[in-house]
Specification:
There is one protein chain. The protein has 481 residues and is an alpha/beta fold. The chain has a six-stranded antiparallel sheet with strand order 20-21-22-29-24-27, with no helix packed on it. Strand 18 (328-332) and strand 19 form a beta hairpin. The protein is built from twelve helices and 30 strands. Helix 3 crosses helix 6 and helix 6 (210-220) packs across helix 7 (222-233). It is globular and about 75 Å long. The chain folds into three domains: 10-278, Spore Coat Polysaccharide Biosynthesis Protein SpsA, Chain A, CATH 3.90.550.10; 283-347, no CATH class; 370-475, Jelly Rolls (Sandwich), CATH 2.60.120. The longest helix is centred in the N-terminal third of the chain and has 16 residues, at 127-142.
């Protein structure tokens, strides 16, 4: 490592991918857990952004997938955060390509840029301790180290990787060389790590200079750097987003930054950080970290319990009544009810349920009955298999559907509240509460909210095929044509 240097400004990079399986059914692929408010009125993504909003940090960069781009942009708008940029990955490729993309893009502006690579879906309950550990890591990174944050192990967890601390770094108090990265152990091995005391959980958070990461990744994974460089060079701006080139990025190996670099480099360092960290990986974990009532239950929503203890019960709407239970998880959405033992190892099996549903071709692993769009959202109320489907559509102030047509379905719109501007073929007209319109199939149409409040309509679709892919967009304010 280089001689001791002062740390400069830190560039946060938030990785917002994820498959939405571990906290299913609340989390889905189309709406993964980082978009959910699980510990406060803000989502995990919003809390992550707020955590790196102080004077120590430059404006943040976000790397995410195509399907979540408008949701993420809207969540930042809600909290008054303007990202430096939102980078869109055309396909998922794990964390090493994301680290390479961030390093390449930020190195153009500042080759010595210190990059804080963050997951978007972690909880930190001690933000002051987090900031103190970041400052320590920044000093090590400024001297050339690639730093990971270790969480002091407090239980023999089998769902985390571990880091064995090596010798202390001579010029950075609180930082250590990495002695060894250890894969997720069995319980007996994890108990040994806990007894030893020199092991930390691997948090998946990293701090490094763009220069150091590119040097090591070029040495260890040159094909990854080459593919990412091409994906940036052939990428393009799209509204408020930067799209990596799909053909180039698809050639990139899908590999984590741990496997690609951290486990092989001699520059790896670890900063133990007792910052109240959790990756919120299971419903059991969420129970552990949530406030409990007098029966040691966590209850969220319209819930009635009798003789229930040590349980996590959550509902998004309908009443849940629970009797005579101990150490269970009950999660009710408007289309799924999950009932599970609260045991941590059993809680890991939610993924198996999701995979089984995927193999059956079910929609539940992928989407809620509510679908989110850049103009607002819609919720499926009824139908979908009998030649009709009913949705409640909410269009935010100033929102507009694309100018579009459907070849296989007609639509009936009834305004519940608000003011709508309707384009239907060559006609333009306005609808208020209790007024309606019929849109025949193959007819160009558009719906716009021109009022000062959200526009609420009931949409009845009829036809032989009601899939969301039966749409031809001719004009769109959100670049989706």
């Amino acid at each position: 490592m280089a001689e001791k240097q002062e740390a400069g400004r830190i560039y946060p990079v938030i990785l917002s991918g994820g498959s939405g399986t571990r906290l299913w059914p609340l989390s889905r692929r189309a709406y993964p857990k980082q978009l959910l408010p699980l510990q406060s009125s803000h989502s995990l993504l919003q809390e992550t952004a707020r955590r790196v909003g102080g004077d120590d940090f430059a404006p943040l960069t976000v790397i995410c997938g195509e399907e979540h781009r408008f949701l993420i942009a809207e969540q930042f708008r809600e909290i008054g955060v303007s990202p430096r940029q939102i980078v869109l990955e055309p396909v998922a490729r794990s964390t090493a390509p994301a680290a390479a993309v961030a390093s390449l893009m930020l190195a153009e502006e500042d080759p010595e840029a210190l990059i804080l690579l963050l997951a978007s879906d972690h909880v930190i309950t001690r933000p002051d301790a987090f900031l103190a550990s970041v400052r320590t890591a920044a000093r090590a990174a400024a001297a050339g180290a690639l730093v990971t944050f270790g969480i002091p192990a407090t239980a023999p967890e089998t769902g985390y990787g571990y880091i064995r601390r090596g010798e202390a770094l001579p010029d950075v108090e609180g930082a250590f060389e990495v002695g060894q990265f250890v894969e997720k152990p069995n319980r007996e091995t994890a108990e040994g790590y806990l007894e030893d005391g020199g092991y930390d959980w691997n948090s998946g958070t990293f701090l490094f200079s763009a220069k150091s990461m590119l040097e090591e990744m070029t040495r260890l994974k040159p094909d990854v750097v080459r593919a990412c460089r091409n994906a940036i060079g052939d990428g393009r701006r799209d509204l408020d987003f930067f799209r990596l080139n799909e053909a180039s990025f698809k050639t990139c190996e899908s590999i984590s930054v741990d496997y690609a670099v951290m486990e092989k480099t001699d520059r790896a360092a670890v900063v133990p950080a007792d910052m109240g960290w959790s990756d919120v990986g299971t419903w059991s974990t969420l129970w552990d970290m949530s406030k409990k009532n007098e029966d040691n239950n966590v209850c969220c929503g319209d819930i009635l319990t009798h003789n229930v203890k040590n349980s996590y019960i959550r509902t998004d709407g309908r009443l849940v009544a629970a009797l005579g239970l101990d150490s269970v998880v009950v999660v009710a959405t408007d289309d799924v009810i999950l009932v599970s033992n609260r045991d941590a190892d059993v809680a890991q099996d939610v993924r198996a349920i999701v995979e089984a549903l995927e193999n059956k071709g079910r929609k539940e692993p992928f989407e809620h009955t509510t679908g989110y769009r850049p103009w607002g959202h819609s919720r499926r109320i009824d139908g979908g298999q009998e030649g009709f489907q009913v949705r409640r559509v909410t269009i935010k102030r100033g929102g507009s559907l694309s100018l579009q047509r459907h070849s296989k379905r007609a639509e009936h719109w009834v305004v519940v509240s608000g003011m709508a501007k309707v384009t239907r073929g060559d006609e333009i007209f306005f609808l208020r509460s209790d007024e309606s319109a019929f849109i025949p199939r193959d007819t160009l149409h558009r719906l716009e909210n021109i009022g000062s409040e959200p526009l609420e309509i009931i949409e009845i679709q009829t036809g032989d095929y009601l899939g969301e892919d039966d749409v031809e967009r001719l004009q769109d304010a959100y670049g989706r044509t």
